[in-house]
Design a protein that fits this description.
Nucleotidyltransferase, domain 5; 5 domains; single chain; 31 strands; binds magnesium ion; alpha+beta; binds adenosine-5'-diphosphate; 612 residues
Length: 612
């Protein structure tokens, strides 16, 4: 069922393919893969040399954009116009990346600290989305050249810990590159699929995906059952990867060098990377640069790499603890990322998990190959599999007194849909503000606001009568939609929650830690706020009661009720929940017989009315 499209630029008719491609949009390298005769393959460049496109974008003096190997060469000669690691900036604000700004060799705009970052190249500004789109366009062109067809549908992978903003940014980059992104898939999930793990409905396993790329390390523990991939936990280090191995080699060489003559740092770094790669196959490396000989043996390199590898294992230990599993309970261990080619890494991971690792595929292609398999599943060419993730933090709304009311708890599997009933607190209330928060603390002020909207046009009714249903819906990409509906009138309002900026893994960790540290204090605050909320309601109804039923109350009863109400007001102004509760009880105990009398009178009146 091929579609045809007219290429206006070239003036010819092109066949538009139904093929859905798989894309690994990496921090260091990106690549595109597709299913060819039932086999996932990554697409090579025109020279047939490499499947990897370095995720580097260079702006030439005449404002042309080049991506990949050619752009990589400009890192040394024209760093301010050469953008790398743009994935780190996806869905982030300047505030999020301020501390690591010096890591980037190009200019990041710091004017508006809360909105999404922009990158300055000459006198133009670019968003990370636009820059990522350039990488995606290159990949799109690459596969279109290979197949001779227009490609418009893709699956793109992201790290398991990417939040809504980062996933949405990735999706937007796809759109900008002319790709309809059918699914955002977690990298570890794609890696499992590449090894065929989880492809059969009866597969039931726990897998660990160890991903050591150029600049980042991720460990993910997955539970795979009934074709469902559930992320039990993820951990990692956003500044630890193959680049650190290169840096260690550079430092090693510089220490050995007599002071004085030193090669340019960028070319030395490239030489170090060459040495590292060479040592994955050989026992020693030697080369000359600017007349200086640089040498290193595998044993020397391993001594340098060991502390870095140890840091990854510490993350593995934490991920296991979060998933409440022991190393021996992990049935499959998958190596992903170019840096896992280092023999020391393989050995260390294999020893840590006490089993053989999956490393037959090219580790830097694994994720893209899995994305191609996922794309094939979506195209309906394989038995449908559901992909499942979890929410890393709780999601909820603000209720009276600034309390967080959790609607979707942390670690809930997505896609998910949860509804809850609310009502108004004031008579005749026409509007209701729905403010959405993410976090574990009891008070919204300590959590992170994702967005808000106002449900308008609630028909005036006494407080407590409107039935307002709030639904939280998270789709398979982990993007949240919040809907509010007043059921008596069908007034409805909804938003897609696209936060202004992202949340880093560290921040997420900090939020969780704080929620534990402050649990007791939060509980006390919550109890106080709840008591205040309840007391305020009682004060309102007591006032109303006295007004409406003055006729059947004695002056003394009215006075005592007022006095007790005023005691309660004083208590509410204080900070002791027990005092508030006591004052509430006193007022209730006193007014309860009066309320009964009022009710009896009302019934008697009603009966009188009927008998008439
Ligand atoms: P990312 O996921 O960050 O985009 P990759 O998975 O492509 O990155 O990994 C890139 C890293 O892998 C680089 O640091 C590169 O030097 C390293 N690498 C690639 N091949 C080898 C090899 N043969 N031996 C050691 N490291 C390698
Ligand atoms: Mg990667």
């Amino acid at each position: 069922m091929a579609k045809f499209a007219i290429n206006l630029k070239e003036g010819n008719i092109e066949k538009e393919s139904e093929l859905i491609v798989g894309i690994d949009l990496g921090t260091t390298n990106s690549l595109v893969a597709y299913m060819k005769e039932g086999q996932a393959v990554a697409v090579k460049d025109e020279s047939g040399k490499s499947t990897l496109v370095p995720s580097i974008i260079h702006f030439t003096p005449d404002q042309n954009v080049i991506v990949g190997d050619e752009a990589r060469e400009k890192l040394a000669t024209d760093p301010t116009n050469t953008i790398y690691s743009v994935k780190r900036l996806m869905g982030k604000s300047y505030k999020d990346i301020k501390q690591v700004e010096q890591y980037f060799g190009y200019r990041i705009i710091d004017e508006d600290t809360d909105s999404l970052v922009k990158i300055r190249v000459k006198d133009k500004f670019f968003t990370p989305i636009e820059l990522s789109a350039e990488i995606l366009k290159t990949l799109k062109r690459r596969i279109e050249t290979e197949l001779g067809e227009t490609i418009s549908k893709a699956v793109i992978t992201v790290p398991a810990y990417f939040n809504d903003a980062q996933r949405q940014a990735t999706r937007d980059a796809g759109k900008l590159a002319g790709l309809d992104v059918l699914r955002i898939v977690n990298e570890p999930t794609a890696a499992s699929l590449a090894y065929g793990i989880g492809l059969h409905p009866d597969d039931n396993e726990v897998a660990a995906v160890y991903d050591l790329g150029g600049g980042t390390f991720d460990i993910s523990i997955l539970q795979i059952h009934n074709g469902i991939f559930e992320v039990l936990s993820t951990h990692g280090d956003t500044f630890l990867g193959g680049d650190d191995f290169d840096r260690a080699i550079v430092d090693f060489w510089l220490q050995q060098q007599d002071t004085g003559q030193v090669s340019s740092s960028q070319s030395l770094r490239l030489l170090a990377e060459q040495a590292k790669k060479h040592l994955s196959q050989h026992e020693s490396y030697e080369n000359t640069l600017d007349g200086i000989t640089y040498a290193i043996t595998r044993a020397q390199f391993e001594a340098l790499a060991q502390p870095l590898v140890d840091r990854t294992l510490a993350s593995c230990r934490r991920a296991l603890a979060d998933a409440k599993l022991k190393p021996e309970q992990i049935e499959k261990v998958i190596l992903v990322g170019g840096a896992t080619r280092v023999p020391l890494v393989k050995k260390a991971v294999s020893e840590f998990f006490e089993r053989e690792v999956f490393d037959k595929l090219n580790p830097d292609e694994t994720v893209a190959l899995g994305a191609a398999i996922q794309a094939d599943i979506l195209a309906g060419n394989q038995k449908d599999l559901l992909l499942l993730d979890i929410t890393p933090l709780s999601l909820g709304i603000e209720t009276m007194g600034g309390l967080m009311d959790v609607i979707i708890p942390r670690n809930t599997k997505v896609p998910a849909k949860v509804g809850r009933r609310y009502t108004t607190s004031i008579d005749g209330q026409r509007n209701l503000k729905v403010a959405v928060y993410q976090g574990e603390r009891d008070l919204v002020e300590h959590n992170r606001k994702l967005g808000e909207f106002i449900l308008k046009g609630i028909p005036p009714m006494p407080a407590g009568l409107p039935k307002i249903e709030i639904h939280f819906i998270i789709n398979a990409d982990g993007i949240l939609q919040v809907k509010a509906q007043e059921l008596r009138s069908n007034v409805e309002q909804s938003i897609d929650v696209l936060p202004q900026y992202g949340i880093s893994e560290e921040e997420m960790g900090r939020m969780l830690l704080e929620s534990i540290q402050h649990a007791q204090e939060d509980m006390a605050r919550r109890a106080l706020l709840e008591a205040r909320n309840e007391a305020n309601n009682i004060i309102l109804s007591a006032d109303k009661f006295v007004q409406q039923h003055a006729a059947i109350l004695s002056p003394e009863e009215i006075e005592i009720t007022r006095a007790l109400t005023s005691d309660l007001r004083v208590a509410v102004a204080g900070t002791d929940k027990d005092v508030i509760n006591k004052a509430m009880e006193d007022l209730n105990a006193y007014t309860s017989p009066l309320a009964h009398r009022a009710m009896d009178t009302a019934i008697a009146d009603a009966i009188k009315g009927i008998s008439f």
